[in-house]
Each structure stands twice: as C-alpha cells, then as structure tokens.
Amino acid sequence: MTDDPKYPRPGGDPKRDPATLESYVDKEDRSQFAMGARIPTESVVGIEEGAQQSARTASLWTDAWRQLRRRPIFVISTVLIIIMVIMAMFPILFTRIDPRACSLSESLLPPSSEHWFGTDIQGCDYYARTIYGARVSITIGLLVTIFATLIALIGGSAAGYYGGWTDTIIARMTDIMFVIPFILGGIVILSLFPTRGVAQVSLVLIILGWATMLRLVRSSVIAAKSADYVDAARSMGGTNWRIITKHVLPNSLAPVIVYATITIGAVISAEAALSFLGVGLQLPAISWGLMIAGAQARILTSPHLLLFPGAFLSVTVFSFILMGDALRDALDPKLR
Amino acid sequence: MGRYIIRRMLQFIPVFFGATFLIFALVFAIPGDPIRALAGDRVLPETVSDTLSERYNLDEPLWKQYGIYITNVFQGDFGIDFRGRPVSDLMRQRLPVTIRLALFAFAFEVVIGVGAGILAGVRKGKFIDNLVLISTLIVIAVPLFVSAFLAQIVFGVKLGWFPVSGIRDGWVSYLLPAMVLGSLSLAYIARLQRTTLVENLRADYVRTATSKGLSRKRVVGIHALRNSLIPVVTFLAIDLGALMGGAIITETIFNLPGIGRAVFEGVQRQEGTVVVGIATFMIVVYMVANLVADILYGVLDPRIRYD
Predict the structure, then answer these.
(1) What is d(CA B10, CA B67) in angstroms, rounded to the nearest whole number?
(2) How far apart are CA B165 and CA B149, in angstroms?
(3) Counting beta carbons within 10 angstroms of the beta carbon of residue A182, is it exposed (0 to 12), middle (13 to 18) or buried (19 or more)?
(4) In chain B, which residues have their Cβ closer than 8 Å to the Cβ of A204?
(5) With an 8 Å Cβ cutoff, are A187 and B15 in contact?
C-alpha cells in the first residue's frame, strides 16, 4: 500500500459496482490478479514452437474462454445480448409494423393477438415501439462505454505509469468528477441542451462516466508496472510506449473488461432514468425510458405500458451484468 | 493516522472548489435569461431587470460571481431563490425529509443486506445462497425508477399496504420509498458480505481456530464475521453519501418534499441558486462520507498503514 499514498482506497474505487465488489481485491491481490495473466513470450515460442504450444494456450484469455464456454450464465447472457443487438440493428426482423404508424382510434388497447403488447395513448403498436426502442439503448450503451474506456485507458495508464505531476493532475480531475452525484450531474448538464438526441445524451454520460473507470485502470496499471517482467523489459531497453502497450496494458486489461461490460448495462439504465425524468431523449425518439415516462399517468388502467418496456430494459441491463459476472469469474484466477 | 487525515483534508480543498465551480458554471450557463424566465410572459421594465441583475450579480464575470457565492456559503448564506426566500431556509425545511428517507433506507439495507449476506456466506452453494445471489442480481438489474414505479403501483395502489405518495401519513410514508432507495445498495451489500465472509472462512486463521477446537458458532460469529465486516462497513459509510444522490429519483416519484426533489425542480425552473446550493451540500456530504470510509478502513484493519 505504501507506493500509493494518493489513493489509499484499498477496495478499488468503484465500490458501488458489483464486479469490483465481489473480487474485493486490495492492491496486493490485484497485482496477483494482473500477474495471473501470462506474459506473451513471443521470442520463446519462436524458438521452441512445438514445446511451448501448450504453455501458450494456457494464457489467461484462452483459459478464460475455455471456462466461459461451459458456464450457462455466460451462454444465456451472450444469447440475450446478441438478440438485443440484432433487435437494435434490424428491428424489421422482429416486426413489420411501423412504430410511428398510429391511429388514435386504437388508443390504449390492452394486449391482443393483433397488438401483442397493446397500444399506447397515440394508438401506436406497443410491440413495434418496444422493439425499436432497443436501438437507442444499445447505441448509447456501447458508444458511452467505448469512449469512456478509451479515455480511461489513456488517462489511467498515463497517470499510473508516469506518476508524479501527471498523476496528481489527472487524479484531481478524477476526484472532482467523482464527487458529483451521477443523476445530479446528468440533470444539470443535460438541461443545458435545448434539444437532446443520442449524441447529446451520450456525450453527457461519457463526461460523467470516465472517472470511475480511470481509477480502475490507474490502480491496475500501478500493480502491473511493478511486476518483474516490466523491469526485465526496461532493462532490455524497451521504450515507455512499448512497455505500456505490450506489457502493462495487456496485463491490466482483465478488470477493465469486466467493469466495461457492466458499465454498458449501467449506462443503458442511466439513459432510461434520465429520459424518464424528462432530461434525456425527447419525443418523437423511441426509447424505453420515454415509454415508461408516458406510462406514468395511465398506469392503473393500462399496466402494459410500464411492464413491456420495463421488462425489456431490465433484461438488457441484466444480461450485461450477468456477462460481466461470468467474465470476472473466468478472468480472476484467485476465484477458481 | 493524524497526518493522513490532515493530508486528506487538504486534498479536500481543490476538489471541493473544483466540483462546486463546475456545477456553478454549468448551472449559470443554462441557456436563457433567468430574469426573463422569472417574468414569464410580461415584459419587465428596464429598471426592474437592472436591479435584479445587480442584486444577483448577474453582470459580473463568472469567476467573480462564484467567488462572491462561495464566500457567502461559508457564512451560511446560500443566496435567495427567485421568490426572495433564502435557499438555506428551503434546505432547512427540506433536509429533514431526505435525512429521514436516507436513514430508513440505510437501516433497511444494513439489517437485511448484511443478514442475507451472512446467511448466504455461511451456507455457500446451498439453496439460500443461490436465492440471495439471484434475487440480488435481479434487484441490481431493474433500474431504480422502474422498481420505484412498480413498488408504488403494487404495494401502494393495488395492495394498499403503504401510502402511495407524499408524507402526510407520518413516518409510514417513508417506508416504501426507503425500501426502494435502499434496495440497490442492499443487493451490493449482501453480495459483498457474502464474498468477504466466504473468503475469510477459507483463511488460515479460521482453520487454526477450528483446529484449536473452538465451536463453529464462535469461529464463524467472532473470528470470520468480524474480519469480513471491514469492507462492508467502509462501503456503508460511502453509501450514506451516495443515498443523497439516489434520493433525486425516489423523491420525485414518491412526491416527497426533500432536497432531491427540490434540486430537480430547481433545474426545471432554472433556479440556479437552489440547484447550486443543494448540489454544494450533496457534494460535501459525499466527500465527507468518502473520507470517513477511508479512515474507518484504516481504523478497522490494522494491516493498512497510511503513513
């Protein structure tokens, strides 16, 4: 713990996140976690290709993959996520009904064989709208997670690897973002935009989301940095860039991937919550959060308005959390 | 330890000013002229709008407005809202609601969360363990506003067990919102408690205690449990701060007049002073909670040395 006086936060910072919560690793454990990843020994493999083949296949990732394929949780969540992604990309495969073709004479019908999920106040087919709602959720979830992870990887490895002033400045910026409650930041920043589409909502969620991830990258980079193979690489004359990209980052990636998977679910949930509060996406966008907001006043007479988008939203978030869970179990050798 | 606390307090300062300035700058960058928003459809005479913008320092540059504002905050003056009422009065009036809500939620998650975690950890792999794991996962997956909504309909309207909204029924009205607000943290706590207990039950000192002939009750209840509570207690400390943020959604849905709903209404009405005042307060609570968690960790676990 002594090498890291600025962040004596031994539980890993995203304490509110199930991934890091469960593998409650302190710094010492995390270095084991990182070192559990075998160093890619290219040169050795080059010399004794045949003999080293088995050692190579036993890398953390192949090992994890072999374990994952057998986990029902992983298989179920993967299937669900694939269905949701297909739904987002090609909603036409699931319904031929236009979600925007509505007739007021069919307002608020209960579920029937003609309208599987019933109709909303405007008389739009609710099944079609629920299907089309997957698109914004998945898009925002992936977009935000990818960009937040990129920022976290760049900033976190710079802070963790170089230390000193770089670390101090990045750490203070992270601290500032970290103490602003997520929903509060969301409603304050989003209300600045008079019109809010996928781009604006994503941007705001990226702004609010990178800090936690950056702390995670930073602490696992610090753990990986002090490993012997990094000293070895440096003594062989490896440049900083090479050491970071070839040794430090690959070995600190496992917790980041787990966290990123769960973040996709969290972002989807946050988007829906903000849209529900009326500061996220705006009509005529089709979003589960907006559909649930529209259900609010008519919940007693038409409960299907809440149930279907609520169920789709929950299942999507659930799948990503499950997948992150399975990934963590597979990638953390300590739990085997 | 003392040196560590002082150093952490000093680190507070830039983070506090940074975060509050960020919120201040964002709020006062909300497009639209607040004075015109206040006037509504009427056209205000020039002199009135001039007086108003002078009173709220709207003509000064942003950093200077922030400087004036934060100096006043340190003297307990959070400014006045557009109805001329001091924001500190509003907070004093709204805060008890949120504190009551947070305390109920906190009690709920401590009792049920820690209890479920211990049960699951002791009976690892058994039915109760799987039940806790799956049910907590479901609670984590269902977004807070959906579960709040569902709870309101099912328990409030359909079954009639709890008041639907508002606080007119006294402390009973806080029960349902508190359970919803605490449910997410409850799930995290149960899982955290289970994991750390399982880890500790595998530890060498537990094997030693068992081989010394201590009863299982004593080994689990005293040796393993005490150690497994350390991360849980630190999590709880942070969570008390985080509950304030979650209160925004819960108070809005259940129509509780707490600071969470006040800040949301403030954003909608573009009442900058209300938003910044409550945000500043929430940030301070959150920072203090984090500090307490860090210190607790060191106090409870003597292996952690800060200096």
Answers:
(1) 19
(2) 11
(3) buried
(4) none
(5) no
Determine the length of chain A. 336
Alpha-carbon gap, residue A288 to A305, rounded angstroms? 10
Q: Report CA dihedral (B117, B238, A261, A330) to the nearest 10 degrees.
A: -40
H or E stretch covering A170: helix A164-178
Task: Say if CB A121 and CB A181 are below 8 A apart.
Answer: no
ipTM of predicted assembly, 2 dp: 0.79
Q: Which of B133, B146, B278 to mutate to test binding with chain A, by most A CBs within 10 Å of its CB?
A: B146
Put simply, the answer to whether B153 touches A303 (Cβ < 8 Å) is yes
Please judge whether B14 and A300 are an interchain contact, meaning their C-beta atoms are less than 8 angstroms apart: no
Q: How far apart are CA A37 and CA A259, in angstroms?
A: 17
> Which residue of B lies nearest to A172 if distances are taken between CA atoms?
B15
Q: What angle do CA A280, A284, A289 make, to 5 degrees?
A: 40
Q: Cβ contacts (< 8 Å) between B137 and chain A: which residues?
A: 318, 321-322, 325
Write down the pLDDT at residue B32: 59
CB A24 to CB B142 under 8 A? no
**Which residue would you say has higher pLDDT here, B137 or A24?**
B137
The answer on pLDDT for A90 being more than 70 is yes
Give the type of residue at B255.
N
The C-alpha of A111 sits at a distance from chain B's nearest C-alpha, in angstroms, of 19
| Interface probe with B: pick from A9, A178, A188, A319, most Cβ of B within 10 Å | A188
Cβ-based neighbours of B129, under 8 Å, separated by 6 or more: B119, B120, B121, B123, B194
| Angular region, B75: left φ>0, alpha ψ -120 to 50, beta rest | alpha
Encoded tokens for A238:
């490896």
